Each structure stands twice: as structure tokens, then as C-alpha cells.
Request: fold
Amino acid sequence: MLERHSHSTEQIIEDLLRPVTQTTTMNWVAFIVLGGVLSAWVFAIGWMFYWGTGVLGLNRQNIWGILIVNFVFWIGISHAGVMISAILRLSQAEWRRPVTRAAEVMTMFSLMTAMTLPFIHTGRPWRTAYWVFPYDFWRGIWPDVRSALVMDPSAVFTYLSGTIMFVYVTMIPDFALLRDRSIGWRHALYRVLALGFKGSERQWKIQTISGFILAAIMLSIFVSVHSIVSWDFAFSLDPVWHSTVWAPYFVIGAVHSGVSAVVTLMALMRWMFKFDDYIREEHFDAIGRLLVVVGSTWMWFFLLDVFFDLWRQDPTDDAIMRMRFFEWPYTLLLGFIFIFGYFIPVPIWLFRRFRRNIKVMFWTSILVNIGMWSERYWLVMPGLQRKFQWTFDWVPYRPGPVDITIVLGTFALVGFLLLVFAKLFPPVPVWDELEGQRFAGEIQVGKRSVPAIIREF
Amino acid sequence: MEVQEIEHRELPRLWELPPQRVIEDGLRRIRGSGTVYKVMLLISAVCAIVGIIAFIVGPISSGWNDRQAWTYVAITFGILMCTIGSAPCFSVCLRMVRGHWRRPVNRLAEIWAIGMIVPLILFFFLLGILPDTVGRSSFWFGWPVSPYLWDSVMMVALVICGYGFLYVGALPDMAIARDQIEGEGGGIFTRLSRGFRGTLYDWQIIDRAQGILGAFYVLLYVGSMTVIAGDFIEALVPGDNSAIFPAQYTIEGLEAGIAVTIFAMGIMRYLGGLDEYLEAEQFFAAAKLQLALGLLYFYTHWTEFIIWWYGRTPREVALLKIFYFEPYFWLFCVAFATMFLSPLFILVWTRVRMGIVGPWVTSGLVLVGIIIDNIRLYSASFSTPNIYLQELSTIPKAYVPGVTDILLAVGLLGGAVGVCLLGFKLVPYPSIWEVTAGIYLRVRRKYLKTEVVLIGKPN
Amino acid sequence: MAVRGVLGLFENVDTAVAGVDAVNEMGFGRSDFEVLSNCPFPEGAFGEEQEMHRLGLWPVVGAACGFATGLLITGATQMAYPLVTGGKPLFSIPPMIIIMYEGTLLAAVLFTVIGVLFESRLPRLGSSLYDTRITAGYIGILLHSPEEQAEAVAAAMRRAGAEDAILEPLRQTNPGRVRQQPQEGASA
Amino acid sequence: MAGPPNSPGAQQTQQPQSTQELEKMQQPNPPWLPRWGMVIDLDRCTGCQACVVACQAENNIPINTEEMYIQRRPIEWIRLERYWDGAYPDIKARFIPVPCMQCSEAPCEPVCPVYASVHTTEGINMQVYNRCIGTRYCSVNCHWHVRFFNFWQPKWPDSLDQQLNPDVTVRSRGVMEKCTYCVQRINHAEQNARIDGNRAVKDGEVIPACAQACPSRAITFGDTADPNSRINKLIASTDRAYQILAELGTNPQTLYLKKIDPYTPAAAEA
Reply:
């Protein structure tokens, strides 16, 4: 593309392996800070296991809390990976190359994190493990397939294992690279992981084709996952939850927040690892254009949902919508959803000048995720507080310190895992970058030489 | 699945054509028209006359109060909105992803916009039978002059935007026609091409205008499909608050829009003698999108069904019955088979997608599907006696069309196609400037022992 | 007859092509040697190769297996435990479809990954003839020639501009099972 | 979920004296199948909350201490909801006792991933405590809020150690629990019925704790499948019977008889 810098192969490899080979003080600071938050997280969970679910801010009415909200949020973030890598692979978009792995890895880790939340949220987690995993063939009764809570783990498990395998396959060539350049335990590790990959033509061919096939399959998994997460709520009869639009609405919202998270990650990688020549303005430009489309579609579904909650002017719906619109804190959250989630970022992304400004992109993407987190809270919690006209049971919800610690801990967990990953494996696919370089060409049109891409058909 | 198949097939001939040849092909239809074209035009003219007569005899004579008499007017309107209305969106989407193969296809998708005048007229008739939004469920909430004014604003804006989009895209070609065609034919183009001289400034204007108009067309299309689905279908079925439905209807529309484009591509290839322009490459890429939207069709219907199946309140059971199971069960089955199963099971095979016939046949099936599905939806929504209830207590019987209904639908559809056919006299196809630009941006080059294609990507 | 591997290492693409030509002149077909590189080349950059693969078949088979498993588990659960919940039918199809869908895709991914390993002949940890410079951007031509010709091949490669041509150490029995010293640590 | 078939301390049960009686006890259910239901006459209800206390004592429900209410986590299988109607001075207190509705098509059942909440053949929507893992989805999907979660390990003052009902399990921390129509009493009655000649349970033989304690006889319990049971007669005799949230189509088994009120006829609609 336009600003591709043509480095020597050696140069590219050196640059992209830098995070693996060098450890900056910045890394150490990050490790220590995140580790601190993580230990608080572990302590909070231990506390909860010891004293019971009572330590959470739940009550008889608001029986699901901020943990579930956060679960939805992380599942949403996890939708970035496949969105980016699969769709861009299939459409052979050239700018996917530096982005894919970071996105897929974020998918992997945020999924793991997300799954911890509903698990510790159950009343008897040990029983949960005992009944549901492993699938219980000999001890009594199997899970009830009619329950959304059985579909949900199956979907997330499928997505998680699929992502792990996908990431692994695309990483084999990089393992081979690291194997040839490392010593000691790292060499042993990479040697096993690389499975003796030689880089013969056949292996490369399979590698490329498997990219397409796996992307296609992962795409169809990814649509199903957040749909099923939304059905956890929509299968119930609760007034505003029981909405037919929730599945696609959750999916597109997930893509909105996930792709924004990828932008955040790209900016951070560019700053932390000095990847300026590989994660370039044009990538932010392209992803920003994508985000405009995604964001607008999300807005459309959001409005559909709101309008059709009010559609029948049913008292039960109206009670909840009135709370969502006019009562603290939901009115504030609504503001966040509209302003941070859409009306600040999307108009900004319309301008090429801003799309190519890393700082702007970074902060707007952060805003989007604040907006999306509020959206999940705004969607989930009021449904329980004003379930039906039993004003006797209308009880406010206030998360307790333990809830909040656990929620913050999840963010630390994802960040920590990402850092560890970047210490062990290159966060940008080296072979993909090299391939991009090799497949880049030029065409002379008149006096101008237009950058071109080699296509084999 | 077997992706390597793509790499082994012969390279398309289109990109080796000399530019002069492209100009000739582009202007051929304007210079003179073949017998096939004339026959098709004649047929559609006859259809149009029959349709208009049936329209006057049927709905208009039966007056505004009898909603059911207007069922097939609404169905025709829906079919047109779903096909020719959404085809330009397909073109916009192709421009957005900047696929290189799109160049011969775009114009074919945009040219349908010419026919948009027909659904617009039908729409104004249909507004007459629409009750105002006071005291019934709608998303206007008693907004003044709703729904009439705001729906019309949407529709008019959509049609204007569509014409603008087509015109801007065709402007450079009209300039070419102006210079290449002598005689009175040239006269029109002199007026239409507005002294376009192809300066850099001109091209920038074209580019900008195409981007903006395209974006607005998509936004307006989604918006107007939403209000149509809301006001003409959901609001007329008591207790129906399925929020997915407008999206569902829009996606059906987009699927049919791609289908109608692929279908036209097939016709142009076999009857229009453009087999160098519309090759396996174009069909392959378009069929991919067709497949994707076929899957989306299933997805949106499934989400609606599963929620109602789990909720199972009396209200939802009634909705499941009227839309899916009781009166229109077989219509739904046909629509499901043609709009979901046929794309899935035909187009999932890469070999089929790379042929021409597979995508073409599928697109034909999808078009049948969209017709059937519109019949299902509007027959259901136009047959409910009292729309002010909270839920549907008794399921109305299926509406069986009379002779006038059939003639009306067939006639008006044929007329719309005829209007689009007339467009070919006015707009060069294939789009000369885009294909030529593509030829410049695409070269074959020897690479070591093999030969590869380089595709230029200016920013 | 015993076969001996020769690995020619070429610094850049052009010399590699020259090497391929040289090998071809010696009468080795396209299927006799494979080209090792650190990132893919356009198809047939070193001449069309015929070898086919069936990667496309794996996900289809996997999907079939996954679908069957999903059907079995969901169906069997409902039949083994005919418990009424919420007045739903004792054998309710819609929930089954969702879980069967997941099972289908999971197995499809699984089989595809197994297929990738199988089709690209991995894992092969006992490394055959290989050199770490390949991942550093060199292009290797790995050729299994009859033992007596190996030297000549290596020479030809050198003549064509190979920076280095490694010969597999001689062995009598059981070709291909000999372990090579792992060449370690160009830079770390 | 009830105690063992012949557990000590069951007042109405006569213990098996011989093997024949034991066999009688263990023979399968008779062909007839009851469908238990409850009618609450709001016109008789005085809101004295005796039913709440009786239920508390009968079903080993942990004591709802003050902080349980502050945490808004009280456990009352039957609760008395109180609504203020009108403004001072002419203000009225409306109240309605709410036990589990025992919906025939209960929304709380299909959402449980582990079959912990299932429907019995006798139309009771029961909770299997051992199986429950505490996802709390059932409570999310119950619109009468009659499912209760044990946020803490239940505790009783030492003085109350001896009052626990041996027929009823004490639920541990982290499981859901709910009104069972006093299923332990139903089981005892059915055992007695089997013992003497495998007969049907007579009408009025089963009386849940709340009905037993109600001083104004507002709560009637019986077999809705049996046409001439008191409960059916009661429903037939009046036009005041209605279900709460009937529009959800879950067909509750607990019916209400509307309050007869000269001032605001629709007051019973909570």
C-alpha cells in the first residue's frame, strides 16, 4: 500500500521479534501493576467462595449482577478477533496482515476471562464443575438441552477451542522462525510447538488454504456465540429482555466494541513495541472506515430495540423504559451509550485526517468501549429491577466492593495475559508480513507508479 | 472449499481488451437495439397496460376502506422495493470494498434504480389505506402527520437519491456517448452530460458525489424498508412487536437485490453477448455475497422463531401461527427453500460458484422466493380485521388472490422491468470508464517461472 | 537404492531459480525436489507442481461427525430423561438444532486442523535435512537424489550460485530415520 | 425432596407394623392422578401473616432477621405483599398473599441447565436441591418472585434447634428454594391412602401449613382434577376467580378470588 516501507527481511524479523527478545522497564511496570490488581482479584474470588454469594451486591430481585454484565462485555470484546481476521482473510484485504494475530489472541484471552464470570457467579461453583464439565455420562443426569445455559457453554467452548486451534495453525511458521533463533528452554518450547515445520511449498500452500477454510468456519461460529449469549436473557419472559432483535443486536454491538478494542490494542502495540513501520496510519484508516459502517449498523439495531420496546405501549415495558430513560444511573449510562458509543467517535471517523491520527483513534476507541460497557449494563440490569408490576418487589441494585474488584480484575487479567503472550510469541505475524512484502508490486500508469498486489487469479 | 482451484483457472479475458473495444461494446445498445431487446420491451409494454387496467378495475374501484383489496398492490410494491430498490445498495457495497472484479457489474446493479418510479407511485396509492398512528402500535407515537408525511419523505428521498447515484456514475459515459454518437441520439447526451470534460476536477467531483450519494442511498434504503416493514406489515398485525422484523425484511431485500443483479448478469451474458465482461470471476464473487445473505436470511428468521417458541405467550403463539404455521405455511416453506436452502446447498461448493450456471439458477430461485415471501407477509398483515387489539385472538383465513390480483401484480412488475429496459437506451452498459480504468490498473507479469496478475490499488 | 538428501541454500530468488534450472537439467522433475522458504511464493513460482491435497474434504467429514454427535447427545438426553420442564415437548427440536450447530462447527474446526497437520506432513520433530538460515530469508532446494548422484547435484547447485549445499550424512540402513544435530542459535 | 417415606415424627403417618404394610406402602401410585391446586379468597384474607409464620416453621426456612431485610434477601415461601392505595387521609392498605403459583407451564423450569427445577406428575413445580447449582436463572424467569436463593448458610438460634421439621431438607448455601405446596404432607397422605386399600387421597386429607394456620379459612387446598372437590366447588360457585399475570399463558394452579369491595372493585389486582 501507500506507505509500505521496504525493509530487508532481516530487518523485518528483528523488528517484529523485538517484544520477544527485549524487555523494557515499561513491561516490568505493567507486569507489576497488573499483577497487583490480579492478586486483589484472586483474593476477592476466594473471599466469595468462602463466604458465599452473599458478599456480592445481589438481592432477591436483582439476582444477576454486574458480573453477568461484565461477562457479556468480554464476550463482546472477544468478537473482534474473528471479525477482523476471518472477514479480512476472506476478502483478501491487504491491511489485515499486522492486525490479525493481536485480534485473535485478544479473542482467546477475553473469552477465557469471560467464562470465569458466570462460573464463579453460580451458587455452588464446585457443583457446576461437577455437573456440567466433564459432560456427565455416569453420575446421574445430563444437562437439559432446553436451557440457554447449556447452549451458552457449548457455544463459548466451541468458539474458544476453535480460536485456539486457529491461532495455533497460523502461528506454526513463526514458531519455526523462533525455533531457529533461540536457545535453551525457549528453543525446546518452540521446537515442540513448531512441529518440525520446514516451510516447503506444500506446507505453505496448506497454511494459506487453511486460513480461508478456518476463517469461514470461525465466522459462522462467531455469529452464533453472541446470539446465544443474548438468548440467555431473551429466552426469559422479562419484558424488555424478551426481544427478537437481541441476537443480531448483541452480535453487531460486540463487533463494534471488539473492533474498537483492536484499535486500542494496535495503538498500544505501536507505542510499546515501536511497530511504526508495520502498524501504519493506513491500517487505522481502513479499520476506522470499517468502524463507521459497523457503528452505524449497531445504532440502527439499538434504535430498533428501543422503539419496539415502546411499540406496544405495554405498562410493563413502559415501567422499565421509563427507568432506563429517566432514572439514575441509567439516564447517565444512556448518555454514555449515545455520546461515547456513537455520536463522538463516528463523526470523527468520517474524516480521513482523524482516522490517520493514532492518538485520536486510540481515545475514540476507548470511548466506544466505555459506551458499550454502559450499554450492556443499561440493557441487562433494569430488566430485573422492574420485572413486572409488583411494585412491592421493585428493589434497587448497587454492586458491592467484591463485585467491583472482580470486574476490575478481569481487565487486569486480560492485559496480563496479553503481555505474557507478547513476551513469548511475536504479536504480529512475521511470515504474514513477509508475505505481504513479497506480494507487493508496482504498476506504471503513465508517470505514476501505482502500488499493486499480486493476485494468483 | 478447495481454494486452490481458483488459482489454476485461466485468467479472465476482460482485462486484455483494448479500450476502444470497450467503448464500442458500451455504446452498442444505444446505437441500435437487437430483436431480443425489442421483444422484451414489447412484452413489458403489454404487461404494463394489462397491469394498469387491472389496477383500476380491482383496488381503485373497490375504494380505500377495503384494505384486503389492496393486498396485491402492496405485494407488488414490496417485491419491487426488495429487488430493484436494493440492487443499487449492492453496487454501493461493491464500491466500498473496492473489489476489482466489480467494474463491469456496478452499472448493472445501479441501472435498476430507473424503475424506482413505479414503486413510488404504488406507494402513494397505498398510503390511502394506511390508518393513522393514533391509538395503535407504531413507532411514530402519534407524531404529527405520521405516518403519511414521513414515510413519503423517506420514499421520495430514496428515489431521488437513486436517480442521482445512477446519473453521477453514468455521467462520464454519457460524455463519451455525446462525443461518439452522431445524430439526434447525441443530442440527449449533450444535455445530460453537462459539459463533462474529464478534467481532474471533474473526476474528483464524480468520485465525491458517488461516495456521498451511495452512502445516503444505503441509509435511506434501510430507513425506508424499516418504516415500510413497521407501518405496512407489523403495525397491521395486533400484538406484533418483533423488533427483528424490519431488519429481517431489509436483509431479504438485499439478498433479492443481489439475486436480481446476478440474474441480469446472466441475461446480459447469454442474450446480451457480453460474455467477455461478465465472466466466472464476477459470478464467483457475487455468489459469495449471495451465499452470505442467504445465511443471514435464515439467521434473522431463526432468531424470531426461537424467541417466540421459548416465550410462548398467547400473543406470540398467534404470531407464529399467522406468519409461519397456519394460513401461509406452504408459502413460507417455499420461501425458505428458495431463499435459504438453495443458496446454501448450491453455492457452498466452490466449484459451483466458479461456474456461471450455478449462481445464475440460484439467483432465479431467490427471486421466486422473494415474490412468495412478500405474498406471505402482506397477505397476512392485510387480512387482520381489527388492528387496535393487544393481541391476535383469531387467526384470519388465508387470502386467495383473484384474477385481477394476479394480472395486476404480473402487469405492474412487467411494467417496472420495461422501464428499466428503457434505461439501457440512455445509460451505456457496460460502464465504459470503470472497465477502462480497470484495464489500466491490472497487468499480467511474469514472476519467476509463473505468471501473476498485479492489481493496482491507488490508495 | 539408497536415497540421499541434498539441501541447496540460495541467498536470493534469482539464484534459486537458476538452481532449479540446474536441477532440472540434471533430469530431476518438479516432484523430485521441494523449495523451502520463510514465506509463501505465488503459486508455481518454481514451476507448476502437480501434487494434490484433500484439505477441503476434512471439514466436511468433520461437520458430518459433529452433527451426528450433537444429534446423539441432545436426542439421547431428552429420551433418557423424559422430564417435563415448562410444558415444553418431551422431545423438543429447536434447542437441539442450536447445540447440533455448535457441535458441527467444533468438529469441523477440529478436523480441519488435523487435516492441516496431516496434509503438510506434520509433526516431524526428528528434523530431516534443514538449515536455520531458511527462516532468515534464504531459499532452500531440498532434493532426494540417488546416492551416487548426490555429490553431482550439490556441485551443480553450487555452480548455480548456491551459497551452501548440505549433503545428508551417509547411512546404510533405514533411510530417513537418522537424527541430525539441531543447528542452533544464529541469533537469540 | 421430602423426607424418607416413613420418617419418624410424621404425625399423620402410621408406621408400618408388618411386612405387608411395608409392601403396601411401597406399591406404585394408584391409577388416579391428583392435580394439586390452591384457591386464596382475598375477601376472607385479613393479612394477619399467620400463613407466613406457619410456612416458616413447617418448611425449615431460616429466620428472616433484620439484616436479611436490609440486604433485601428475605426468604418467604408465602409472603404478604402490602400496597398503599389512595392518599392520606382516605388511604387503604391492600394486601395479597403470594405463594408459588405452581404454573402448569412454568417459565422457571426449562431454563435450568441441570434439571433441578422440574414438573411432577401431580402438577407441582418442584426444586431438586441436590441438583441445584445456583445459576439463579429460574428466579430471573419467575415473574411472581416466589423462588428464593440461599445467599448465606442458613443458621438458627440454638433455642430453635429442636423445632426443625425432620420431613423437610434444610437447604444449604447456594441453592434455590421455593414453595412446595408442603409436598411432605402430600406424600404422607398418599402413603396412608396406599396403606389402606390403595384408595385415592380423600378431599381435605392434605392441608398445607399455610391453609392450616389461616384463621379466616381464606386458603383452600385440594385436587383440581377431582370434579367434586371443595376447591372445584368453590371455583364453580363464584365468578371472582382469577390468575395473576394470566397474560403470560403459564396457567398458574394457584387461583385468587377477587376482593369484594364497594369502593374500588379492582383493588385485588395488586
About this structure: DSSP finds 18 helices and two strands in chain B. The CA atoms of residues 296 and 302 of chain B lie 10 Å apart.
